[in-house]
Amino acid sequence: LKQEALLQLEQADGSQQLNELRVKYLGKKGPLTEILRGMGSLSAEERPIIGQVANEVRTAIEEVIERKQEQFRKEETDKRLRQETIDITLPGRKQPAGAVHPLSKVIEEIEDIFLGMGYTVEEGPEVETDYYNFEALNFPKNHPARDMQDSFYVTDEILMRTHTSPVQVRTMERMKGDVPVKIICPGKVYRHDDDDATHSHVFTQIEGLVIDRHIRMSDLKGTLLQFVQEMFGKDTKIRLRPSFFPFTEPSAEVDVSCMMCRGEGCRTCKQTGWLEILGSGMVHPRVLEMAGYDPREYSGFAFGMGVERIAMLKYGIDDIRHFYTNDLRFLQQFVRV
Ligand code: PHE
């Protein structure tokens, strides 16, 4: 029995076969178990002798199984390792990396400039109430901007904000008459416009607001000059033209010297040498008052710019729709800017 078992075991060529043999010789129905079970019918002298022989046989078989098993395990690992070898000379596959959207880059750049001047960044809701979008900003009840034609209304009293100026009011209310207020607010705004190369029904504005004692128009002018020189280059000039907004008085439209032709006159600036980039003014006393600031003690300035327009001028982009159609050929040009 022992010889037969050992011979078969030595010839086994896989763990499965080995297992089958284990069951065959050592299992419950195997010959050894049978012999041990039959021990009861043996005489007292025979019992230890047969028992010893049976145990020897069992131990011998177990040892061979153990050894073979170890051998198979090693062979199988070797085989797997050989199959899984990595060819380190193969060139890798390139993973396409994402990049920051050009518009986000320009927003970050503008934020950085104002953070450097001590401003903080505020945000506000895109779905606004009539009160914050118009009323608290001194828009008269019959102002055309309030018309369905110009604004996206959700209900009579709720609309998609048409500018970032409501964040001015929300910030002032939160500050409860405290100064200084010195914030910029980037965000999306919505207008009922037909989309074309220079108009989009959704676009991005950055609003600025400063309130303190003794804030003057010269502070506004100096701040904006510093900003455009960091944004467009050291010799950029600005020009303020009288304008009108219900929430500022006086109000000014701000032009920068054309960075395309350096003031010589070109198509971008329609031969004028100047480009309009933002609206601004001194915060209207009624706006201050409604938000809890005494206009006899405090004054402030505000400005608002369209980020797409700034980005288009800075990078020579000819169509605002490029920012939203996500054509990779457009976007990839900005990966390393
Ligand atoms: N809110 C104005 C607009 O959307 C821009 C502006 C902001 C003007 C702040 C003056 C002061 O056109």
Structure, described:
Mg(2+) binds at residue 249. This is Phenylalanine--tRNA ligase alpha subunit. Tetramer of two alpha and two beta subunits. It comes from Paenibacillus residui. The protein is an alpha+beta fold and 337 residues long. The protein is 40% helix and 19% strand. The chain contains 12 helices and 9 strands. The protein has helices at residues 2-11, 15-26, 31-37, 46-83, 102-116, 130-133, 166-175, 217-232, 285-290, 307-315, 322-325, 328-331, and strands at 120-121, 127-129, 158-160, 181-190, 202-212, 238-245, 248-257, 274-283, 299-306. It has a 7-stranded mixed β-sheet. The chain has a two-stranded antiparallel sheet with strand order 2-3. It is elongated. The N and C termini lie far apart (83 Å). The structure holds phenylalanine (PHE). Residues 163, 165, 207, 245, 248, 279-281, 302-304 line the site of phenylalanine (PHE).
Main beta sheet strand tally, sense and closure: 7 strands, mixed
Widest sheet, order of strands: 1-4-5-9-8-7-6
What's the number of extended β-strand segments?
9
Which compounds are bound in this model?
Answer: phenylalanine
Uncertain ranges: none
Percent in helix: 40-55%
Broad structural category: alpha+beta
Estimate the strand proportion: 15-25%
**Span of the ends, CA to CA:** 83 Å
Mean pLDDT rating: 92
Radius of gyration: 41 Å
Question: What's the total helix number?
Answer: 12
| Helix-strand topology string | HHHHHEEHEHEEHEEEHEHHH
* Overall outline: elongated
Pfam families: Phe_tRNA-synt_N (PF02912), tRNA-synt_2d (PF01409)
Subunit structure: Tetramer of two alpha and two beta subunits.
Domain Aminoacyl-transfer RNA synthetases class-II family profile: 104-313
Keywords: Aminoacyl-tRNA synthetase, ATP-binding, Cytoplasm, Ligase, Magnesium, Metal-binding, Nucleotide-binding, Protein biosynthesis
